[in-house]
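Render this sequence as a predicted structure.
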Amino acid sequence: MTDPTPAQLIDQRIADLGDWRGETLARLRALIKEADPQVVEEWKWRGVPTWYHAGGILCTGETYKAVVKTTFAKGASLADPKGLFNSSLEGNVRRAIDFREGEAIDAEAFKALVREAVAAVGMKGRK
């Protein structure tokens, strides 16, 4: 028997949540894939969906009781003209977005952040 793939583990997490958090995580995952069709999904740190591009981490999708948190690894260096970042604002590197039940997701602004993260990963290799 083979181990489940990261994609299968993420599918299972979404199904196991069975509430607004699963729906939100599924929506964010779809937006990440739309913004970066080459994204690679991983399952890290004992159960955190994580998305990579060209070997560099873009963001994670953590689920808690009251929020679904998307943490961007290089968030402090990304342009965020719509002001989506609302968590982990004090750090020098990461930034996060906490999504709460019933909150609308600004799909275009979120995808723009993902594309910014992809560009930041790409710049790392050119320095």
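Summary. The first strand starts at residue 40 and ends at 44. Strands lie at 40-44, 48-53, 56-63, 68-72, 95-99.
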